[in-house]
From TrEMBL:
Keywords: ATP-binding, Cell membrane, Membrane, Nucleotide-binding, Phosphate transport, Translocase, Transport. This is Phosphate transport system ATP-binding protein. Signal peptide: none annotated. GO terms for biological process: phosphate ion transmembrane transport. It comes from Breznakia blatticola. It is found in: Cell inner membrane. GO terms for cellular component: plasma membrane.
Amino acid sequence: MEDIKFEVKHLNLYYGDFQALKDLNINIKANRVTALIGPSGCGKSTFLRTLNRMNDLVDGVKITGEINMDGKNILSDKINTIDLRTKVGMVFQKPNPFPMSIYDNIAYGPRCQGVKDKKILDEIVESSLKAAALWDDVKDRLNKNALGMSGGQQQRLCIARAIAMKPEVILMDEPTSALDPIATQKIEELIDILKKDYTILIVTHSMQQASRVSDDTAFFLLGEIVEFDSTLNIFSNPKNKKTEEYITGRFG
Ligand SMILES: Nc1ncnc2c1ncn2[C@@H]1O[C@H](COP(=O)(O)OP(=O)(O)OP(=O)(O)O)[C@@H](O)[C@H]1O
């Protein structure tokens, strides 16, 4: 059996009285790329954020059900959310480097965790930038401000920053929606390389992107998962009529 990273059981999420996720049941496989697709407002980002408890930061949220990560329910009160967010890193829609040097952007997280040794920090910075396919672009200007990089480079820096924390999972919420086609292609190539070492979930509005980068795809509609299958099946032989209508562009 393939390794399951997240086993989601009867997951419901409410923002106040509004139910944004409805009885989700899904197994996310380790070391695969899972795409979350569906029309605007159907709960993709909300679901993504349950996986590192980012919704805890929103007032009035209520969550029921279970999300077992490597067999442990991460929704339990006993879970240390700081540790969880170290294991489950996140990359956002808009690249959001800190207004500091390229080096310090990567070293920031490890330093917060108490790493002080310059040699170790140098190693983390180099290996993280290499893993994000950015080292060659920036190795001669590590002390320059990260805000001077192109948008695509900034997004790869944000991926490198996530990698520096040695995560097991990387959540990506529309990571290329602010990027041009060439920068997008680089991120997609990177995702393909990273899945060897990490479990990746990606929210995307691009059907082409979902079919290019992902192994499995979940189709969301109005807070429910309508269909979850291999990306090949979802795009070539969807079982649900709504899935077929969405992927062929008839709504959304
Ligand atoms: N903080 C919040 N408070 C109240 N309602 C929210 C909050 N965040 C999201 N919602 C609502 O929950 C539903 C799901 O939102 P979510 O952002 O998860 O959808 P999405 O599928 O990611 O949409 P998009 O593709 O537009 O990013 C929407 O109806 C949204 O208005």
